[in-house]
Every structure is written in C-alpha cells, then in structure tokens.
Amino acid sequence: MSLLQKERDVITRNEYADSFDFDEIEDFIRNANKEMFISHHFKKRDRLLVQPRGGFPTYKKMFELYEEFMKADIDVLPLTIDSNTRLNDYAMAKKMLTLSEENEMDMLNGYPLVNHGYRTTRKMMTHFNKPVSLRHGTPDARLLVETALASGIFEIEGGPITYMLPYSKNFPLDKAFLYWKYVDKVCAKYSTLNEPINRESFGPLTATLVPPCIVIVIQLIEMLLSIEEGVKSFSVSFSQNGSMMQDIVTSNVLKKLAREYADMFGGEDAIINLVYHQWMGAFPRDKNLSDSLINTNTVIAAMVRADKIIIKTRDEAFGIPTMQCNAQSVANTKYTLRTLKGLPQVHDAEEEENLELEVRAIMDAVFNDPADTLWRKVFNTIKSGLIDVPFSPHIINNNEVITIRDESGNIRIIEKGKLPLPDRCFAYEKSKVNLPESKTEVINKIIHDIGAML
Amino acid sequence: MSKLLIDVGSTYFKVCQTSGISQYFRDFKKDIYDDLITKCGNIFANYKKEDIFICSSANGGLSTLIIGLTNSFSLKFAKNIAFNSGINIIDTILYSKIEESRAPSELVDVVIIVGGIDGIGKVFDEKLFDYLKNVQYSNIVYVGTKQDASFLSVQIPELKVLGNIITEKLHVNGGELKEYLTNLYQADIVGKEDIKHLYEITANQIYSTPYIVNRSLPLIDANFEVVNPFIVVDIGGATTDIHYSRDLVRDNIVSESGYDRLVFKKLGVFKSRETLIFAAKNNEFVYELLSYLNVTENILEEESEKALRILMQLSIFLVLYKVSRLNPLYVTLHLDLLNTIVLTGGITKVLSYEEVEMIMQFFYKKVMNLHATPNIVMDYDYAIWTLGMENKENSAS
User: B259 pLDDT exceeds 80?
Assistant: First the structure.
C-alpha cells in the first residue's frame, strides 16, 4: 500500500464521514459519464460556460436549486460548502443540518457535504449529469475533497494560498501547502481513470484593490504546485477589477505566462483554462443597478475570452439569493453571451509589457529562494513579504503593499513594500497616479473604493 | 566515520550506534559520568570526541513566571516562546490583576515581563515592583515596550532588557527571548555538576533532548506513517513533553517552526511518579478509566510491572486531558482534528500498541465524544531522537 493510500485511509476514517470504499469509488469515476467532467466541456471550447454560486443545507433544497438551474440551461452546477465544514467542524455542521431538516429553515450557509456523505450526494450529482464545481474556502480540504470526488464532483476550487490569505487569519500556511498537495495528488490519481479532474484556483483573493501582478503570480504558483503533483486540467482565474482595459491586459498576460510556465515545469500536456469572476466587491442595493453591473461583467468575460464565468445575482447586497433569483441570473447571463458576437481582440502592448515584467520579477524571486521544494520557496517568499496581498487578514501576510485606482480605474501600486518590482515598473505604476497631497486623502480614497460600484 | 549518539534521560541512558540502540537503567547512587563510563566505557573507546553527540533531559527544565499585559498578545506570545525554549511555566500574571495575585512560594529560575508595543509608554508602574519584592527569582528579563525599558532598568538593577516580542503589526518576534531562554536552559544543563563531566567524552555542544526532538518533527513523516496534524508525546521518567502541529491551535502566532512544544514537568512514571498519581486521583475521569482497564485504585499504591503499565496508560490519558478543551490552563489543542499520535520515550518500551489503543478509545469516547480515534504510531527505537540528533549534527557540520 502506498504512503498516500495509508494517509487517505486515516483521513477518511472520520466520525462524520461515510465509510470509504475506494475500489467502488474508482469504479464509479472510471465509468462516470463524461458530461460530468468540466474538463471534457473545456476541451470542446464551443462556448463560455456559465456557473453561479449556491448551496443550501438540506438535500431537498439543494436538489430544488439544481432543478431551477437546469431550467435556466446552466452549464456548470455549483456546490457551495457551509462555514462549519470549511473549518472542519463537522460536529456543528451535523447539528445545524439536523435543525435545518427538522425546522425547514436554513441553519447553514451552504451544503455540509461531509455530513451528507458521498453515497447520498452522488445520487443527486448523477441525476443531473452536469459538471459540478466545489466552492468552499477550506485550508484543510482533504476529507471534503475525498467526499466531493467520490460524489461525482469533478472540479475542485481552491489552493494553499488563495484559500488561506483571503479567508483565514491564523491557519498555518505551511500546513495548508501540505494539505493541498494531498488534494492535488488525489485529483491527479483519479484523473487517470477517465477525463481529468479540473483544479481551479481562486483568483479574486481579497477582492480589494489587488494588483494584477499579485493575482497572476499566485495563479501561476498554484497552477505549478498542482502540475507538480500530476494534475492535467487547471483553471487560472481572476475577477473584475474595475477597469475593462486592465482586465483584458491581465487576461492576456495570465494566459500567455500560464502556458509558458506550465510548459517550463513539465506540464506540456496540461490543459489550462481561464475563469472570470463577476465583480467580487460590494454590490449596489438597487437591484436594477446590480443587473447592469452583472451585464457589464458578462461583456468583459467575453472580451477577455474566458472559458468560464462565475456569476453573481441581483440579491448580492442582501445575502444568500433565492433559487429563482439565482436561476434568473444564469438565464440573463446566457442571453447576454448569445448577443455578443464578433468581439474584437484587444491588446495594450505597453501595459502588457509592464505587467509581464512585474510578474516575471516576482516569479524569479520565488525560484531564487534557496529552499529545496517549490512550496517551501513560495512559503518563504510570502513570509518575507516578496508576495504581499493587500488587505489580507492572515497574520503571515506582510501587508505593506498599498494600491489605489488611477483616473481610468486601473489598480496601481503606490507602496510596493517588499515586492521585488523592477524600478522602471514601479516608476510606471506611480506615474499613472495623481496622488492626493495628504496621506489622509489617500486613505480616504482607498476606503471610498469599497463602494466603487455602488 | 560513524557517530555515537547518547541521550541522558532521568531513568535511562540511550546509546545509538550504527548497529542499533541500547539502553541502560541508571544507577542513581553514581553520578551520570561515572555511571555512563561504567556501562558504556568500552563503546566510547571506539569513537573520537568529535563523533560523540550528547543530549540530556536529566533533571532538565527551568521554571518561569510571566507577567504580561493581555492574554491575547503579551502572555500568549511569551508562553509560546517559553514552552518552545523548554521552560516550564509555573504561573502567568495578568498585570491588571497583579495586586491580587500571589507570589509563587518556590524559587523561580526566570521572571519574564512583557507588554505593549513600541511607542506606548508607562505600561508598568509601582505595582510591579511591589509584587516582585515577594518573588524569589534567579533571573529577570524584560521584553516589552522599549519606552518603559530604562525606567524598569533603574528600578530593577539586575533586569536583562531584550527586544520587544510584540511587533507593531502585533506579530510575535521571539528570536532574542528564545535565544536567551535556550542559553539559560543550556547553562542550567551544563552547570549541573554531573553533566559538566560529560564534556570529557564529547567535543560537541550538549543539547536538551526536547530541543532535539523538536528539530526532528518536520522530518517525521518521511520516516513514519504519520498523517498531519499530529502530536508527539514523549513520556519519560521525570517529565512529559508534547510536540504538536500548529494547526491544532488557532492562535495569532507566526513561528519559524510548524510545531510547538509543551512540557509537563511533574508528569512522569518514575521520578515524578508521586505527582502523576496525585494528578490522576484528582482527575474526574480516572476512576472510570481504572475500571475500564479492569483494575482498582489500589493499583496506584502497588510497585509492580502491572502498576507501571497502568501508570503509563494514565499518563497518556492525563496528558491528552491537559491539552483538551476541558482544561484551559494550558494550550488547548483541537484534538478532534488530530490524525496521528506518535508515542516516544520510555513508555514505548513497556506498553503494547493495544494498551495505547485502549486509552485512546477511552479518551476519545469519554472526553471528545467521538468514536473514531487518531492513528497511533509507536516509536519503539527512539528514532525521533536519533533523527533530531542527526539533523542537528548535519546542520552543524
């Protein structure tokens, strides 16, 4: 028995989980319908796939939500996991699930997958026969991912950085790297049985004035960490940042460098796709404005030539959307995409060159770290502030980088902290911004940015 | 050239050569050096002094009293640094309650004063000096806001001032204090007359055993079937150490290592037998546990092999209990997330896997209300210790 398998036996032997029958699970995945694999749909490249977010605690409500989505001709179903499961607190998730079932009231903000178990959940997944994407935010997702894959969920979102720095305050980052290594290994193992399991990174990060160079670096790192473990289908992602031009530039550089670095690190056979998130910041309380924002986002997703778009709803400012509202958003997005034909391919050579130089400089700093493994190099780089995510709550993050918008809505770095940016790039960034005289004004401008789309 | 590794424990010597590990029960009538020479002198003759590496936990451990400003930062950070330096914390005093706090009756090896970030002044005042008048201590160190350093230095002439352990970002900056405490610990070990003599055998620095074990933790999963998060429980004759993965705690500390350490100075099955029994008798679960093990409480008074086995089982239970949510005095570990428990030290020479498993099942069922138990790994050959020694030696050479 391999060391990985022994580890899997320990991880899946959990009080709150199904008893795992790995042979049966392998059989299931081997014979699963290809329609359930998003990697299969990506290969076809015949349209931009639409995926909402969504998760309810009970099986019944989750099933009803999927039915609503199916009516809206959805491409990818979501499975959003509740907060307790994200923190590995399966005991509380179980209690709240019971209360939700007894009182017909949602006591969880998502689907407690581990507690439902894979045998139950698989019935739902195979019934709808669509690709399902696991949306969570869990630093230690080993048991959750085992359960998801066994259930027929063949896209796993997250990563050791993107599910840590924006989501967690003090979970040890080095451990997160090791736990995501496990996830990648299991995904890679199952990828040999049928179509590849797709791993997707979470590009929005804190969704608060994150400069494109940081977004891209972290996407590339998580992609390389997955490829290192044998993952063959990977989605890099980012979210709308407030400037259509900067989104297009980000997309062009991200696609180019993702392919380049993947090939450089032995991932020539890995398929890399691009996912675009609709606006991840604060939404307007006027639902008509929300509709307009979502519509604009859809246009940008088409402009950046994303392979998948993850959508929002007009209820975003008010909490968890209703099933009907969520399904309506899917239908509207799909309609907008149908009307977008013959879009031009746009480039901005100067911006792309600058962004590329920034990304390469940070990547070089990662590779130049003396550690013997890639994950340890990355860990050291984050710890020393060479990678720094603005406004991350995590204690290991350096939090010295300050960004602000220029007149065109582009995010610019005005304090680089310890980011190893070339002087010319930093000078270029600062040249684009007319900084207010006083620091107070700068701070107020940054705070005001929270309401950029209101 | 092969190396010779020696661990001086409170009950046994362990000697590791390429041919394997042997252990010798100590003769307490002799000093350590004479005893070691008597038992292993012929082995030493085969090695150069440069190739002999020694670590010791014999009577090791200093005691500390920490006076801090808040539980969330100063006390938490100082406790973490102290435990990881191998120091036993006898008490922590919250400064706002210092007037109603009692001074410890015994001599304290080192008092740590901490509080405030740099830029904040006048944190400490006369209340501190009034309290310290009643404390007997050998060393005193200040690691708080630098604005108060000169004022405190005037009032406490023997005060050692180091850099603030709390940064302006409220992160822990433990380097200087850790080095200071580790040096005190080393000086204490080396200062002990019978340890001093050991430098006649070795040309290398003598380290404390917990320090060596802690160094081996990142390498463990390469040598054992260990699944993170894990804990290593080292139950010896005098003390019990727990080394734990940092994801079992949720505190705001970024540390160099992914593993922290806790030491229970009075929890051992030989030298600390009496205090172990005392702790057992005061535990709410122990009588139920004894009946589960099919013995009566009389076993605690017996001197037999059976009694020793029961004591060892009790020590596993007590150490887990002490770090569980039922006992907030120490660090609380999320034992529901624990995947592996590694047992090392003298206990593995006595207890079988099944006897450990029984205890784990009882603990998880009764205390954690869970049926599934973590994976148990027994380090029968002190491999963790040799791993750490080799790692130390490699990084030194």
Answer: no
| pLDDT tens-digit map of B335-347 | 999 999 999 888 8
Q: If you count them, how many residues does chain A have? A: 454
**Best residue in B77, B227, B364 for a mutation probing chain A (most A CBs within 10 Å):** B227
pLDDT for A19: 95
Q: Where does A110-229 have alpha helices with state H?
A: 113-116, 118-128, 142-151, 173-191, 212-228
Q: Could you tell me the CA-to-CA distances from B106 to B47, B88, B102 in Å, in that order?
A: 43, 13, 12
Q: Please, are residues B46 and B135 in contact by the beta-carbon 8 Å criterion?
A: no
Residue A249 backbone dihedrals phi, psi, to 5 degrees = -60, -45
**Residues facing A198 on adjacent strands:** A155, A233
Determine contact: A383 vs chain B, CB below 8 A: yes
Question: What is the C-alpha to C-alpha distance for residues A188 and A233, in angstroms, rounded to an integer?
Answer: 9
> What is this structure's pTM?
0.87
Residues of B in contact with A393 (CB under 8 A): none
- Going across the sheet that includes B375-378, the strands are B259-264, B240-245, B230-235, B340-344, B375-378
Q: Give per-residue pLDDT as tens, A306-327.
A: 999 999 999 999 988 999 999 9
For B170-224, how does the pLDDT look when each residue is reduced to its tens digit (9 = 90+)? 888 888 998 898 888 777 766 666 677 888 888 888 877 777 887 788 888 777 7
B interface test, pick of A3, A8, A10, A399 with most B CB neighbours within 10 Å: A10
Q: Judge: A171–B250 Cβ closer than 8 Å, yes or no.
A: yes
Inter-chain CB proximity A170 and B370 less than 8 Å: no
As given in the structure block, the two tokens for residue B231 are: 């804990």
For residue B375, the chain A residues in CB contact (below 8 A) are 10
Report the distance separating Cα A265 and Cα B17, nearest Å. Answer: 42
Shortest Cα distance, chain B CAs vs residue A409, angstroms: 30
**What is the widest separation between alpha-carbon atoms in chain A?**
66
Q: Does A15 touch chain B (CB under 8 A)?
A: yes
**Is the per-residue pLDDT at B297 higher than 50?**
yes
Instruction: Tell me the three state secondary structure of residue A156.
Output: strand
Helix H or strand E segment including B244: strand B240-245
Q: Which residues of B touch A140 (CB under 8 A)?
A: 247, 337
Say how far apart CA B342 and CA A199 lie, in whole Å: 33
